[in-house]
Amino acid sequence: MSGTPRNRHLEIIDAALLGAKVIKDASDASEVLAPLKATAGIVITILETARGVKTNKEDWATLIKYLSSQIKDMQGILLRCPTPHSTALLLAVNSYEQKLQNILTKVRLVGTRGLAEGILRQRTDKEEIIDLNRNAEIYWADFVRAISIQTHETVHRIERGVNRMRSGVNRDECSVDSIGDNSHIKELVPLSSATGEDHDICLHGTRTEVLDLIRQWVNDPSASQLWWLTDVAGAGKSTIAKHLSTEWKHQGRLAGCYFFNKNRPETTNKQGFCDTLAAQMANNQPQLRSLIAHAIKEIGPILSMCPFEEKLDKLVIQPMKSVALVLVIDALDECDERDRVIILHKLLSSLPQVPRLKILITSRPERDIAQLLDGYRSRTDSLHDIEFKSNRDDIAAYVKHKLRDHFLSSELTKEEIDQLAKRVSCLFILASTACRVVEHSPDPQVAVEELLNPNQDLLCDINTLYFTILTKAYKRAQVGQRSESKNWKLLIKVLQAILATTTPLTISAIDGLLGIKNAKRLIRFLSSVISVRNDEVIVIIHPTFREFLEDRTAAGQFHIDITDAHSLMAKGCLAIMKRDLCFNICQLESSFVLNKEVADMNERISKHISKALQYACIYWLDHVVGSNGASGDREVDAALLRVVEDGYSLYWMEVISALGKILKAIKGLQDIEECHLESGLKTKINDIKRFLIAFSTPISESIPHIYISALPFTPKKSYIRQGAETLFPNTMSVFIGCTENWPEPPQEWLGHTSCVESIAFSPDGRRIVSGSEDKTVRLWDVETGQTLGEPLRGHSGTVWSVAFSPDGGQVVSGSSDKTTRLWDAETGKALGEPLRGHRDVVWSVAFSPDGRRVVSGSEDETIRLWDVETGQPQGKLLRGHGGTVLSVAFSPDGRRIVSGSEDTTIRLWDAEIGQPLSGPLQSHIGDVCSVVFSPDGRRIVSSSSDQAICLWDAKTGRALGRSLQGHSGVVRSVAFSPDGRLIVSSSDDRTIRLWDAETGRPLAGPLRGHNGTVRSVMFSPDGRRIVSSSSDKTIRLWDAETGQALGEPLHSHSGLILSMAFSRNGRRIASSSSDRTIRLWDAETGQALGGPLQGHTNIVASVAFSPDGHRIASGSGDKTIRLWDVEAGKALGEPLQGHSGAIWSVAFSSDSRRIISGSGDKTVRMWDAKTGQPLGQPLRGHSGTVGSVAFSTDGRRIVSGSDDATIRLWDAELGQALGEALQGHSEAVLSAVFSSDGRCIVSGSEDDTIRLWDAETGQAIGGPLRGHNSAVLSVVFSPDDHHIISCSSDSTIRLWDVETGMSMGEPLQLHSSRVCSVAFSLDCHRIVSGSWDMSIRVWHAKLGRLSRMPSPSKTELIFQTSVEIPLNDGLVTALPPQKRSVFNIPNRKPHNSDHFVSGPHFAPPGFLRCSISQDGWVSSSDRVLYWVPSHNRHGLNQSYILSIPTANPFRATWIDFTHFHCGTSWVKCRK
């Protein structure tokens, strides 16, 4: 049998050693294996060194397995390869050997540390071993790549042969018939709204000059391929485009047309451009149909995700290579600015491929378009210049045509129409608007007379006409109305609403928001400038009308102040919310299902939430922000106050939950806080924001759980909680684990469960994104330090790099799973499939400045560009580095990329063509870990494993001055401040440094606080803060000017907790730590009592209360003992000195008069607790460190445990050994204590066992107690001596029955790291444990099958799952007495045989087999019961009642389900 885990660990090493030695012997005797000789020798040395190390066994085991399997695989490779071995193979083996030598050097460093240093550096060692494991993987991957070249060549030869065979296949089998063509063409998604159906053609006989010129251009093969028709708004460009496209279509010359239109939002980007043109081409030109179908087939199922450039090329450009056709693109200025530049670039670059293609483009003369098309500007006269007769004639013809019916009906005379045509002869928009005025007038003749009145000159320009239209509408609105001022205000309100709306509204929605009933009537009076679509959505006919209204000079009394308009809309939104919001607005019957699972959710929304209320709930925040500073601010504040009170904020959350707008709401609330609000109102808004941030998951996923799950966990003094308690009394009650107030922003942001590899600020500075070794991405709120929603899960490996898009809407991440992922930064949802292409770890990712591309650097030594919209690779691979690409970044203008590599070089690349710009930048002598451009793009800063930072001229590639020196470890990350004046760097030396970017001089710092390597660092967009992430699993914020840490310090130890003790009265807990301090805690509340007790200069390994509770003794690695006054929190006298080694254990005698100590100097000492003087000589006898000492209750004996694997008893009066050493353990004895009656001793050892001893005879009682699978660090008797509690390096706590020697149930998994200390309270009701996870747990140890926990009222029983802990097939109580006693402990009083209660207690009454999901949902049989915040999940799943510090991710949590309602009764939560 293998025995203990310690022995199994040794067996693993010994087996590996045997295998390595066999291989080495074989390499000595065989020429084939000769290259392995040196490598095998290094592996053997590593294994022998690791055999002597006693800490971090699991991590060592991983490294051992790696190396053992690798050398075996290498042996197999050498045996299979032909001899003599190729140079490439020998070089690969040699390279691997050299890299193993690096591992050996680090292994020796870790393996030779002593006990004290080993404990002090345990976490660091763990990180280093993990790094060694990574390195072993990396080195092996390098070796495999090096020897794969020949294999790849063979594969390529085979592929070429297969391709030659395929070329003989009959091509007829690949032909595509018309049926197949149709099926592929149907895959296109064209936009019918982009084909110009909203536009008219030119009236016959008008615009003949410009039309003829364009026709001549089209017919001239030698003319330019592109014609740009440009003029001011309203000149008639779209009409010309529509006319020609219609004409060319009839002639069979039109390929396709695309009309951009701001009133059709779906047409204002490039999304549907290619599909729309390709579909028209297939219909207009039958000869192109099969070519387009073939292109669609070639693109395959990723058609919708195909990059724009590729899609335009394959679907539009390539099919027209040999035909003479025309494309028409109208109103390009109404396309998104970024998209139109992309379209133009691609079209212009493609012209040489399609020499017979002609393209007509119309637009306003916008600057960005003019820069690209100025050379193609039309040679036509200005379309709106009155000096040109053709313009006058065309407009006259248009007016006569539009008013022809009025002439025929004798409503207007020919002279009147001619005069009107003459007066509007400058702009088509003026003519068309004037005609609409006449057409929609109840008396056309009066309308014409007013327009022609020479005293008013209404038709001199479009603004004057708009003014006239509004004046007329106002007068018409007065007819039959009593109040002139009321109608005036009403008209202005309608115009304000139309201008301020964030998205077009229906007439009924405007009525609802403004609280009126006649918006339709008023809008009818404005029909010449405002159009009502069939769906009753209101749109402004031409953008010049909006421009008029916002121009104070032009609009005069009709001027709309947009701020006042927002104020009006804000009040309207808030009023309708106050009126229409209600509890359970969607009439949901059950809380068991989430929003997405409600089959008719959309129908419920339509039925119960009007369009006006939907708009109000989504956009009221925007309007309040837009109204800031308006004359109606106080009214807005008053309306806002009415809504945030009386539960309406919760009802509002129901609507935004149904509409999926939670994160937009959070952003809006953040914006509002920057407005000038009354302080009390701002406090309430802040409370609502904190509520949404904290509970974004349940609120976004389920309306009922706003009340069922969010409210119970809301801080007790929260405004929302206090206001809701009377309205919603029937919910569960979280009486342990719910804070009083919202937590202050912490200094350490906790959430990740492993190293935080990368962090980045959002562009607005309000959020941070982080990527971690725990395979997740997290979003954080900067103001609160709280996570936003649940972790973003999808990667299957470490997330090495994260970044925000420039607009903050997306996040990109790169991972060791070889993929890059895109995420929606608002919803946290993955966008599409992972971006696959790299063959190895993706180390670095970054967005381009325009947000359209992502660059990624990989361990496969390449750089890739990706199209963000389609997720497809863009261009070719960037090759040039000879090692892993560790860092990539775009230049501020997006035209260049910089990369840093493991090959010690930096490279610059042209981001458009993917070519290197000059040679590599060389200066570093180690891996280049981080590179970034300065904000002005003129400089580059880099950091390296050579501990240096370098500055470079981005244009010439020359190093600027000397490297920046100061860090003593790998410099992992560097960044410029937004103004380019500062550089921030982070390092494996656990510090952050600031540098002057001009002089290279170090500034304030170094900044210290992290307890691990600082992996990533970045400035906030305003340059005022710095964010950092670390291998200590935390994120920190710093003041960039002062270098001070920001946030509330966590009142806790900053190092490993090494020792714990209860005061005799059970009111206080003392803890000591590797951070060199002692802390006192209130055992009931978990609050810190004063600050840390400071004085020791090394780790504090042991702490003990005096029985009278007045003093604390502490022993330290600084070789001293200190006494402390508990009340005053101050040191008493000078330190007790005498030991020559670290002090690992201290204890008081029961009368508080003496202290004993055990030390690394192998002695035990006794001290006078009052004077601090040593009593007698040191007690000598142990041959190793004395790690544990304790007095017997009567103070007459001392027990000590040592690294020499023995326990000794001493006469406390005489200072002499009592008998021989107690032997039985095979490893160091780490803990040994007396039972309270002094008759037994219990010991815990590094051999993973616990032993009981007869204190009188020194004989072992029974066999060892087995259960832990790692070192037993602390053991203690319960005060009644009936039980033992133990804790271990395996992170568990175990309870043992002293009489039976049996473990009572499953081990308690209360901590996430090794548990170093446990203690009972004197009343046996509580146990305290301290761990290297830097937390302290207090939990109930009361015997009995139901544990009555402290509850809100004395009469309430807390419902919890009663966990019966089995022993074999039954309970401890079910065992026959004769089988229960395995220890011969005479005269032991009978005791209660019931077990300790432990285990999960989160199931409400009546629900069995409950479980908690990763995202915090507690479910039973697929029914969602309630949701738990991340920091309460661990505590809810365990039995402890207190966690110290209280504000940590593992806080104790207990729930009272007395008034809990869920399922179909959930609505009863409301009174």
Characteristic key phrases:
single chain, 1471 residues, alpha+beta, five-stranded antiparallel beta sheet, 68 strands, elongated, disordered N terminus
Quick structural overview:
By secondary structure, the chain is α+β, with helices and mostly antiparallel strands.
Overview of the molecule:
Strands 40, 41, 42, 43 and 44 form a 5-stranded antiparallel beta sheet that branches. Strands 49, 50, 51, 52 and 53 form a 5-stranded antiparallel beta sheet that branches. Strands 1-4-3-2 form a 4-stranded parallel beta sheet. Strand 54 (1229-1234) and strand 55 form a beta hairpin. It starts with a helix and ends in a 15-residue tail after the last strand. The relative contact order is 0.04. Helix 11 runs antiparallel to helix 12 (286-299), helix 21 crosses helix 22 and helix 32 runs antiparallel to helix 33. Mean pLDDT is 81; it is low at 1-6, 112-124, 148-177, 384-388 and 1343-1399. With 1471 residues, it is of the alpha+beta class. It contains 38 helices and 68 strands.
